[in-house]
Amino acid sequence: MKCNFISNTLLSKCVAVAFLLGGLSGCNSDFLKETPLDFLSSENTYTEVSGIKLGINGLHSSLRDDLYYGGDAIVYFYSTMADVSYNGENPGGVTYDVMTPSNSLFYKLWNNMYKLISRSNELLLYIDDERTTGWESAEQQAAYKGEALFFRAYAYRLLTSFYGDVPLLLEAVSTPETEYVRTPLEKVYAQIENDLLFAAQHLPDPGKEEKKGRVTKGAAYHLLAEVYLQDGKYAEAIEASTHVINDFGYRLMTDRFGSTKDVFGTGDVFLDLFAYGNQNLNENKEAIWVGQFGANLSGGGGQNNGPRRHGPRYYSLGKDPAGYACILGELIDGKYTGYSDTLSRPVSWSRPTYHVTHEVWASDWMNDIRNAPHNIKRTYYFQNPASPYNGKVIDFSLWGSYETNGRNQMKDTCNFIYPYWIGKVGDPCHIQAEPLRSGAGYTWKDCYYMRLAETYLNRAEAYIQLGEMQKAADDINVVRSRANAKPVAVGDVSIDYLLDERIRELFTEELRDVVLRRTGKFLECLRKNNDNPQAPGMNVKDHNILWPIPQTEIDATGGALIQNPGYN
Amino acid sequence: MLQFFNVQNQSIKCPFRITKISFFLLFACIVQLLAVGTEGQNTVIKLETDVLSIGQLINQIEQQTDYLVVFRNQEVNINRMVALRKKSEKIGFYLDEAFESTDIVYEINNKYILLYKKNNEAGLKEIAQQGKKITGVVMDAFGPVIGANIMEIGNMNGVISDSEGRFVLSVSPGATLRISYIGYVSQEIKITDQTSYTITLKEDTETLEEVVVVGYGTMKKKDLTGAVKRVNLENSPAIASTNLSQALVGSTAGLNTAQSGYAGDNVSLSIRGNNSFSASQSPLIVLDGIIYNGSMSDINVNDVSSIDILKDASAAAVYGSRSANGVILVTTKKGKADKPTVSFNMSVGTQGASNHKAEYMNAEEYTMRLVDYAYQQNLRTWYKTNPTSDIGRPAYTDISSKEAKAYYLRSQEEKDNYLLGSDIDWIDKVMQNGWTQDYNLGVSGNSENVNYYLSGAYHNEEGLLKNDQFTRYTFNAKVDTKITDWLKLGANVNYSHRDYSGISASFDYATKASPLATYDFETPGYYRTEFAMESAMKDPLQYLFIDNSDLRNTLFLTMTGRVDVPFIKGLSYDFNYSTTRYHRDNNSFYPSDVDGGFINNGKAVKVPENVNSYLFNHIFAYQRAFGDHSLNATFVYTTEKRWGDTTMATAESFDTDNLSYNNLSLGTLFSEESSAWQETNLGLMGRISYNYKSRYLLTGTVRRDGYSGFGINNKYVTLPSASIGWVISEENFNPFKDTYLKLRLSYGQNGNQGIDRYVSLAKLGIGAYNYDDEMVISVYPSSMANKDLKWERTSSWNLGLDFGFLNQRLTGSFEVYKSHTKDVLVKRTLPNVTGYSNVWANLGGIDNKGVEVELNSVNIQNRNFSWLSGFTFSLNRDKITDLYGDGSTQDLANGWFVGESIGAVYSYEMLGIWQEEDLFSGNIYDGWYPGQQKFADLNKDGKIDAEHDRKIIGNTNPSCRLSFSNTLTWKNWSLYFILNSMLGGGGYYISGNGLLTPENSSDYVIRLNQPSVRDYWTPENHSNESGTLFRNQQVSTNIYQNRGFARLQDVSLMYTFDKKLLRKTGVLGSLQLFLTGKNLYTFTGWEGWDPEYTSFPLTRSLQFGIKLTL
Questions:
Q1: What is the dihedral of CA B1047, B1048, B1049, B1051, to 10 degrees?
Q2: Residue-level pLDDT at B972
Q3: Which among A103, A338, B324, B706 has the fewest CB atoms less than 10 Å away?
Q4: CB contact under 8 A, A167 and B833
Q5: How many CA atoms lie within 13 A of B686 on its CB side?
Q6: Cα radius of gyration (chain A)
Q7: How far apart are CA B1075 and CA B240, in angstroms?
Q8: Burial profile B395-431: b = 16 or more Cβ within 10 angstroms, e = fewer
Q9: Sheet holding B187-190, edge to edge
Q10: Is the pLDDT of residue B24 over 50?
């Protein structure tokens, strides 16, 4: 600072005196220097590998929360906008009727994937910067670059699926800009594919990753295959999937493993796959990439609300025909909570469609272990020692006819009782928090982001697209045979069959919307299979195949972003 | 006691000395009464004491008889004490005794008594004969004014009112008297045939001689060139304000206030219009000359003498960078009298909710909403078949039995309670009528070399919600000493202890809770976690069981020194140092069955927080008068630093609750967080004021400021200002002798640093992840840097007119202003594509213009009755002139448009509600159904979409603000009230009112209770104003409503005891009882909670109080 704004007058003499008395120089700019005391910035953190590691952790953390946490958790909520489920508590509530550019319910994917992209870009800037210190080797540097590129690709893959052309940003934004336009799809795909090829080349082999949960070559190839499927490059998809299947020692688990408790008295390997604590095990060769959850880790453990969302609201059943509460729940401190520890506290926001609960199983109901009662709970029991119905199966016919019993059939069957994927989503007996509400519907069970069974089905999909039905059938049968299901005949293989197989194997795991879109079956399956009693086919309209770009985003770009057709 | 020219007005003393004795000596001292005939000498008077001064004797004679006593005060020593032998005697007897062995003789006429040196009576008699004796009493709003000056204009004849406010004066026929007293508006009265007068003086808020605080110095109000408003609290009617900011509501044109209804909350303040898009709008608070960083609620209202509000740029310019939103200068009390004055005030009262209450659904409505919701879903399915008449409409649900309705309830708990007929009004259950109490004790005094003020106060109030309570102790010690002729030292210690302990009942959950919950209100200690197995419906009363202690201590310490430089006349140096130490301890323990402690079996949280600051001011002032010229130059160098830190330590999972939050190691799960910060300011200011004959006034100011929070490239700003004043009424050509007129014009620049520290820097947010249950820290970029972030700068013009008409019976001011703000600090919305949602930037410009009027009048003034009124009016209009400097005319994301107000509401225009007839006739838009909001289709394409159908539908700012206050005095009674209003109309002052229609979210409408302010739409109830339950609209908005209101803001009724009566007690100096009410009644069209706060009622209070001095 220069203090010469007042000329040499009496006042300026006063200035001199003031400085003297103040013991501080007014011209000393150090006095106004701003030193952050309690936060980091990329300039002082990403300049070393130790800081870049923190940034990589940040990518993992934000993706996990985007996919599994919150009312708009991408994996769970978005599947209710597809053919596999609907909101059982309020079926007419969220349907395609309310999918408008200004409904913030549908903003998460756009906003959060771009955050992921920005965070990856910021890291890439420093990983590529030669001034960054601390690399153990050039391989490590390339591997980290591959991991950041992998996350960016993951985000763009989802964005292209839901929105089509999207702005392609490959560098961190450091000055306020607002005019962003949509980049043609081909260009975005080309970028994603390149990035993933780099990642697949430089990421560590499975087992060599620095920590369980970090990304490996296998994950990169798996994702690459999915991008190729979306891009219509089926041969490349087959090649990428084949790398996963052949190169890294993955195999489907066929024997029981881990430390599963068979709480329902029976069990099988499919139950083991999804049992608490079994996903990260070295012996689990089926896991390609696992989302990490941890109970009792403040801030770091995440929260998976799968049980809450998928389970039925059994505790609202009310009274049994004899006038006793149907289910008393756990006895804690001398009081019944109303909740059962095995069922937790679900709210039925993702009630599977009839197609999912029944139709896909019809051909092989008894053999397919994936339909075993410990994996899909279909039978519920009265639990109230005072009642004559105690221990009996809950059957709504016990109350008599709906004409006269005052009950509401839709509530009973969509909201209160329906088949529940308890083995996969549920977390019986791992009440880690809120004992009074049986865990409140949350679990800290690790989740498969990618599992080898899906890789087989992805490759089968590519073979079908190329008309190589035998190879497709072979891949599908790898999955089916592990499940003790009858092999599919080549003649029965089709995209529709594949989509049903995906339901059998991957319901609650897969990003159903993405699969339906890339197979061109989105509208058809939705209209055929989603039997939402208030909104058949979820009231989907043709233009809903792509989602609307958030209005806030169009507003923020001053209209430079063009809305998808049908939304204005 | 009779005194002689103990004139307080310095300007009168001077000419008095130089004038020749001859004529005006006569007026020196006078008093008298009507003639009593020739036996005047024999008139008997009684004395209370037999030892008294000549002056007292004369006083007694004049009071008990009709005589006027006339003498020259050079001749008669009125202070001479005499001992008289009797307590009841004739006048002659006393006069003989009193002047025995002196050279004074007396002469008793039938109208007057002359006292003179022998042979020196010449002229005295003529004066006495001409004189007309009048009597009078000087009052103010609270009672007699002691020591007021009563002067005859044109000569030096005068007297001072006695302890009862009375005076007697002999005046020439047709004379005009000027009655004046420091702190009051001077008044002139014309003497007519009447011989007795009551004069009610009005307080000094508009006194021209009054000294006003202007920042780094003071100025006489008459010499001001900027827009400064003084609010005098010391002499104002008793209003039991719990908070200093409350005392300002409605007081000043251009001061915008917004009240809240929570105990211990501040009224939020802003001055004039919106200068900024996103930066802070709060004015700067300066306490006794020092920038005050604490909370307004730390300051004890009873310690405050006056508040000066700097409104225009030139006035505020001395605080340069901090002043764009105006400056509020708080001056605390000082000692006044030689003898220590002890004052004691107290008030006790009760407070409850203001008159507006929003209704929520009762048990029946709550149940029927679920029946209706289900039916309306079926109806919607039918609507989708595009029916053309009501044939085929689904039959309404069979609800012939209670059981049938009960089935729709979502839990067994509610079903059972519905059948039992229970119905809980949760709003009623969480609210209370609270008590307030306030005690203040002060001692002050002023001797030749020491001025001191000590006070202690206790305040306690219970808010509107159960367990919302606030206790405050404040201690204030202020000492100013004069060490030598050239050195003064002072210190001020202000300590406040605020206790906000206890978590109040949750108002939010009360609005959501089921009226059909199972609850036991009888058993103490009973509470639940949530109702009806609905996690979003928590027990609003459970929070009372959280063990919480929230203590906030603030120590504000100031040291001042002043050197009057001996060798340069008029030059002085002031040094101020002040420091603030704020510490807060907020500790909570959440038992395992209370929301918050539920998840992990009990939770204890300790949050200690420290905020510190220091400030140095060096003030050099040079003040000289050269003949008609007067010059005042000030130079200031100031530095300030503020820093603080917070730690949050949490322990969860407790096996025993015994030790509450005091021993965290009893928990088994831990987490910690901490933060720290610092920021600095540096400023240089120069100001020169010049005036010629107090008629032409000129002030110029330059300030250069630096703030650490700005970008590294732009830490500093230089802000100049200048203003001129012209006292028109001082000009010779002014024909109206009894008017006062001053014209002011100012131009200046102010800066705004109203952004938080560190916002110009890029930050990494911190989170965590785990790999195989091993926790790791994660970071991610969370904010974008802006190295060029700089000051927001406002340039403004202000034209002001101060006036006083009819001998100052009507006074006031009129202000017009216009300002332009550039480099506006904006939290600019970014597309999420960038990875960020916003960044602080300097963008665009905003214009503000406005008018302010203040009027004060003395409407009626009689012996026993007076009526004074005050009126304020303010109007402000703002307009965005530029957004991003790139020619863009709109920012849709923020709803900002060039040419429009920042408060513009950009939305869909709601025309009403779609009805079934619209559907049947095919007039309805595709995808829209009866019961949904009907919006204007601006582009007539049969669709409602964001791109084409939004427009500006109104403005959230008020159109104007008005207040009207009155003080009525009748004998010892005095009544004060103020009506305050903020008006809408013409689209102004609108707000979305969430209470007018049920929740649009289909999820919450069935899960939570809903407002029942208006009935929702059904096919039978064709409401055009409220939507239906199952709305599921493609596009939905709140229903906008005008918030305009007029409020009976404060009422105060006071009784002031007679001083004469009090004197008999020998202890009390003054005693006043008062009853005051706040927010007593609100007139408004707004539905639901109070229009000012909208989401919560305001506090309506009634208090009884006592003010006394010893």
A1: 180
A2: 87
A3: A103
A4: yes
A5: 16
A6: 28
A7: 9
A8: eebebeeeeebbbbbbbbbbbbbbeeeeebebbebbb
A9: B158-160, B149-152, B176-180, B187-190
A10: no
Average pLDDT, chain B: 84
Residue pLDDT, tens place only, A514-563:
999 999 999 999 999 999 999 999 999 999 999 999 999 998 888 899 99
Closest CA to B539 of B548, B531, B551: B531
CA distance to B564, B700, B794, B801, B813, per residue, from B726 (Å): 31, 15, 25, 10, 14
pLDDT band at A350 (very low <50, low <70, confident <90, very high): very high
Report the amino acid identity of residue A411: K
pLDDT score of A323 more than 80? yes
Residue B744 has a pLDDT of 92
Q: Between vectors from CA A329 to CA A431 and to CA B518, what angle results, nearest 5°?
A: 110
Angle at A114 between CA A112 and CA A115, to 5 degrees: 60
Report which residue type is found at B837. S
From residue B986, give the alpha-carbon distance in Å to each of A507, B9, B194, B1106: 57, 52, 54, 45
B900-932 b/e with 16+ CB inside 10 Å = b? bbbbbbbbbbbeebbbbebbbeeebbebbbbbb
Q: Is the pLDDT of residue B857 over 80?
A: yes
- The residue written with tokens 């409602």 in the block is B944
The pLDDT tens digits of the residues spanning A165-222 come to 999 999 999 888 888 999 999 999 999 999 999 999 999 999 999 999 999 999 999 9
Q: Which residues lie closer than 8 Å to B942 by C-beta, 6 or more apart?
A: B925, B926
Q: Is residue A505 classed as helix, strand or coil in its secondary structure?
A: helix
In angstroms, rounded to a whole number, what is the distance separating the alpha carbons of residues A82 and A71? 16
| Residue B1055 backbone dihedrals phi, psi, to 5 degrees | -125, 125
B280: Cβ contacts below 8 Å, ≥ 6 apart = B325, B752, B754, B755
Tokens of B250: 């409605």
Residues present in chain A in total: 568
The CB density around residue A172, as the number of other CB atoms within 10 Å, is: 21
**How many whole angstroms separate alpha carbon A217 and alpha carbon B5?**
103
DSSP string, B927-938: T--TTSEEE--T
Choose the closest CB to A551 out of B639, B776, B946. B946
CA separation for the pair A486, B721 (Å, rounded) = 90
Contact A38 B676 (CB under 8 A): yes
- Report how far residue B1073's alpha carbon sits from residue B634's, in angstroms, rounded to the nearest whole number: 45
Measure the N-to-C terminal CA separation of chain B; round to a whole number of Å.
20
Q: Which residues of B touch A280 (CB under 8 A)?
A: 772
Query: How would residue B209 be classed by pLDDT, with cut points 50, 70 and 90?
Result: low
Of B575, B718, B833, the CB nearest to A553: B833
Element (H, E) at B133: strand B132-140
Give B524's DSSP letter.
T
Looking at residue B366, its pLDDT comes to: 96
User: What per-residue confidence (pLDDT) applies to A403?
Assistant: 81
CA atoms lying within 13 Å on the CB side of residue A358: 6
Q: Does the beta-carbon distance from A26 to B533 stay under 8 Å? A: no
Contacts of A338 (CB under 8 A, 6+ apart): A315, A325, A327, A328, A329, B533
Q: For residue B715, give how far its alpha carbon lies from the nearest alpha carbon of chain A (Å).
A: 8
- DSSP secondary structure letters along B288-340: TTEE--S-GGGS-GGGEEEEEEE-SHHHHGGGGGG-TT-EEEEEE----SSS-
Q: Give the pairing of strands B810-829 and B838-861.
A: antiparallel
Q: How many helices (H) and strands (E) does chain A have?
A: 20, 6
Chain B residues near residue A95 by CB distance under 8 angstroms: 1032
- B167 or B272: whose pLDDT is higher? B167
C-alpha torsion sign, points A34, A40, A41, A46 = positive
